Amino acid sequence: MEEMNMQENARLVLGLRAAGWDEKKINDFILYIETGEEQYKPRPDKEEK
């Protein structure tokens, strides 16, 4: 598998910001991609009722 370069990483972060993700959620997602640790795995947002 090919590694992502810095330009691709920047586009990923900018795309997630544009999608409304906050910095903590973005950082945790990147940590999950790199480590595979369950504690960083994205979870569905809780819907307000």
What can you tell me about this protein's structure?
The protein has 49 residues and is mainly alpha-helical. It has two helices and no strands.
Keywords:
single chain, 49 residues, mainly alpha
The gyration radius over C-alpha positions equals 12 Å
The helix content is 40-55%
Question: What is the molecular shape?
Answer: flat
Instruction: Give me the strand/helix succession.
Output: HH
What is the averaged pLDDT score? 91
How does the SSE layout of this entry go?
Blueprint: H1 6-18, H2 23-35
Short description:
The chain is mainly alpha-helical. The protein is 53% helix and 0% strand. It is flat, with a radius of gyration of 12 Å.
